[in-house]
Each structure stands twice: as structure tokens, then as C-alpha cells.
Amino acid sequence: MTMDSRPLFGKVALLGIGLIGSSMAHAMRRAGLAAHIAGYARSPETLEKANSIGFADGLHDAPEMAVREADFVVLATPIGAFGELAKEIAPHLKPGAIVSDVGSVKSAVIRDVSPHIPAGVHFVPAHPIAGTEQSGPEAGFPELFDGRWCVLTPTPETNAQAVETVKTFWRRCGSEVEIMDAKHHDLVLGITSHLPHLIAYNIVGTAADLEQVTQSEVIKFSAGGFRDFTRIAASDPTMWRDVFLNNREAVLEVLGRFTEDLTALQRAIRWGDGEALFNLFTRTRAIRRSIIEAGQDTPAPNFGRLRTRKP
Amino acid sequence: MTMDSRPLFGKVALLGIGLIGSSMAHAMRRAGLAAHIAGYARSPETLEKANSIGFADGLHDAPEMAVREADFVVLATPIGAFGELAKEIAPHLKPGAIVSDVGSVKSAVIRDVSPHIPAGVHFVPAHPIAGTEQSGPEAGFPELFDGRWCVLTPTPETNAQAVETVKTFWRRCGSEVEIMDAKHHDLVLGITSHLPHLIAYNIVGTAADLEQVTQSEVIKFSAGGFRDFTRIAASDPTMWRDVFLNNREAVLEVLGRFTEDLTALQRAIRWGDGEALFNLFTRTRAIRRSIIEAGQDTPAPNFGRLRTRKP
Fold first, then answer.
1. Which of A298, B61, B76, B275 has the most CB atoms less than 10 A away?
2. pLDDT reported for residue B6
3. Do B203 and A178 touch (CB under 8 A)?
């Protein structure tokens, strides 16, 4: 993180002020990145909550009002709404403004947003890889991006200076920045984020539907491993629906590999092949160690949540 | 937890002093449950570590030495070793002693251990549903069982007084206790613990083997969800090999259901069925809430591990 504390932008417009948008506002305030933060949300309840928290200087229920005179505009709604949103704001964008986003899929976002970006405005697709299972403006906090990676996926046509500015923005929000091809990003996130969420949602659904095991048993005995999956499976349903609808190809590809491997594992269990099981279970330990060494997870056992008994 | 602080047993023998065995020793000390705690481990390294931590009053490299004069004997090695271990200690068990275990599978353990239990000794199968991803005598701590459930699976032949004593033991270790049929236990744990571990091991293996995505990318961008799975996939390989070899039927059954559900989800993604995805993703949130309300997980976002950046 640079020590620079001058505002990078005059006005920043956050279109969407849920977990990510509100955390960006908090992080921008912490780093003094904007002279004015404008927030947009469709629902009056969200605007009301945001207003009482106070992370924005102006709040709007119309996106074109939020983007007026903005130097930096960030799309931060579920990605299914990006195309319409870009179309709506296009005539109101300030010449020279930078438009960016925080969507979890990049090829589809480039496909949906780019056609609407007027000449003289620069679109820099971005994805901060950070989050929690909570949603809404009250879920945000300034440290969300600290030590996490933000991936930028400019196309060959993207303005290089605009990419540098967005890079600086994210670094000052606490992130590390990586540049990647959009298609590659979608595959990397397919395995590191989208497939894990799909699997988590699926196993929680399976457990709920098993007629021989009661819901109460699933809950009581969840400390055996299941509870870990329920955290991810509590993530925002709209956001994740849009991710799967918009990263179909990459998700189906990694899912195919996952299923293939799972079938082999199933066969090893059926035939009592202890060696195959042991070998896989040994190999996977090393990856955990590397993630901890890279500062991407805590070394504390059970993620440090030792005491969770009822008060 | 009762306020009773009289020792429940004269001598307790822990056969196996890894994460669970050593945590039991710490919890017994905390509650004053035993006048003498004897530990057994096969490897000199484990005994050496246990000795320097000091949670046992006596340490042995032969199980028959540890069980001599013990009132309570606990099998706490990986379950694949239980049969041999029971056979070895049988002639040395004190009349009236209670033998129990901490194995994650109960039908197979009853099958392997019961035939070796001499007349006048009582076998009470038990499974404390608690743990971390770490292993070995240095991983143990006294609070591991606090607020977690311990399931006892006595058969109709099991001595009722012995069951009551084991129940008291676990309550004084901080646990809540549930009585269950062994076969039902194996199915419940199949979905709440064994399948989650299998899935976690599998996805970590799949990610490691994807040739289009580098290991370094998987590690850097793991905060998108993948890192959660690596915790579970860092669990002890021998213990988990033995679980899958000994709970084959139940694991294959719940795995079949999981795969069936996953196939339906795959189809929803392929055909762009956003409604099906949204419905599942909404339903799974409620289970998370119930688990938190039941005191089985922390309400803190990201399990409370907000700051994991490199020092």
C-alpha cells in the first residue's frame, strides 16, 4: 500500500452499495481516495440503511444522478444488471471518466458493458477477490480488501493510463493487483470460487433433502465438517445466480473435471482402495500450507473459531 | 456441565494421543475426571512430544501396559487399528472396566471391537463430534469438546450403568450427549462429516491437477471460496482413509444423492435456468442461520478471520 494520501478522484459513483460497494466506500474514506462518494441503490430500504451508516456523501435512487460529473464509476450490483445499467448511465458519463466494475465474471461483463461505453470514456474491467457470506450495505467494512487480490482484465483496446489509475485505486484500498486475460480469469475463478460455491450450495441442499436424516440432526452434528460449507452457501443468491448464468462454459468445464475425479474416488471407496485414498489425502495438505504461507488464510485451527458454544 | 469435581475414574488409559486423545487428557485434567491418565502411542516421537507437553501421568509404548488397572480405556487411534488393538489389550483389561472409543464410524467399530471384549468388561461405543484440521499430541486443547455433541451408540446388550458413566464423562468434558443407533449414526455422519471431507479432498485435488490453471493462481485467488475447503482437506490422511474404508455403504449412499443433485444443478446451468439456481441458493441460507442459532458455528463473517494478510 502506498503512503500517498491525495484524493485520486474528485467524484466516485458506486452503482450498488451492498457488501462490496459499501466496503469500497469505507476503504476509500480510509485512504482519502475521493473528494465525493456517491452511492446508487434501487431499493429505498438499502438507501435508508446506507444513509444511517453514512459511508457516502450523496445517495441516489437513479443511477444517472449518481454518475453525473463522476471521474470514476463502479458497477457493483449483481452482474446480470450490468448491461441495462451501462446503457442507462451512458449518456450521462463525463468525458474522460473511467468506468469499472467488481463482477465475478469478466468475459460476460465485457460483452455486456463495452458496447454501451461512449467514446472518450474508459472501461477497465476489475474483480476484487474478497467477500464474506453477508450482504447489504451494513455488511461492508474498510479492511475487506486488505491483502486480497484484485484482478484487472483490460482488453488490448483498453486505455493504458486508465488501467494504471484503477491499479493505483485498488492498491490504495489495500489490495494487490494482477492483470489477466478475461477468459483466463473466468477459468481461474471457476475453480477457485465458482465451483466451491456450487459444491457448497449443492451439499447443503442434499443434506436438507435427505429423508432419513432430520434437519435437527444435520444442524446439531454440523461441526463434523458440514458447517464450513454452510457459510459459503449463505452467500447472496442473486449474485451467485448471475455468476453461474454468466460463466457457464468455464463452470461446466471445471465441474466436469470435479465429477470425473469424484467418480474415481467413489470407485476407490467401493473397492476399498486405501492407498488411492491415502495418496490424495496426503497431497491436499500441501496446498493448505501454501495458502497460509501466502497470507490468504489464517493458520489458526478451525479458522480460529474455537469457542462457538451457546452463551 | 455438572459442577461435580470428584474423579470419575481412578485410572484412564488413552490408546492414541493425537488431537482427540490429547484434548481428552486436557479436558479430564480441567474437570478433575481421573486420578491417573495413562497414554499409549506407537511412535517414540509422539511419546516424546506428549511427554514434553505433560498432559499424561504415564506414557507407554505398549498398549497392554497402559490399560493395566485402568477403569476407563479409550481407543483413540485411527479406526483401522481398533480390531488389533482390542485383541491385544483384551487379556489385560481389569474386570468391570469400561472400554470406549472416539471413532468416526460406529457399525464397523462395533463389528471389530466387540468380539474381543471379555465378559465383565463393558464396551460403550462413542463419537465426540469435534476436531480441527490439525493432528498430533501438540494439537490438543481442553476446550475442544465444549458445546459440541458426543454420540453414544450402545447396542441392546450394552450395560446401562456403563452408558451412564460414559455420558457423565463426556458431559464433564464439556460435551452434550446423544444416544443413537450405530447404523443411523453412520448415515448422519456420512452427510454431516464424511461427505463434506470427501468433497473437500476431491476439489482440492481437482484444482491441483487442472493444467490450464497454475498452482500459484489457485493459491493467490483462494479467498474466493476455495481456501475454506483446503482446511478440511488438511485433515489427517490415515484417519480419513480408515473412515471411508469403514463407512463405505453410508458414504456411497449420500454420495449418490449428492451427485444426483449436482447433475440437476449442472443441467440448470447448461440451460440457463436462473430460477432453479436462485431457489436453491435461497433455501440454503436458512440452514446456516439455524446452525449459528444452535451454537454450532460463529456468526462472525468469514468465521471471524478478517485479517489474514501477511505480517
1. B76
2. 80
3. no
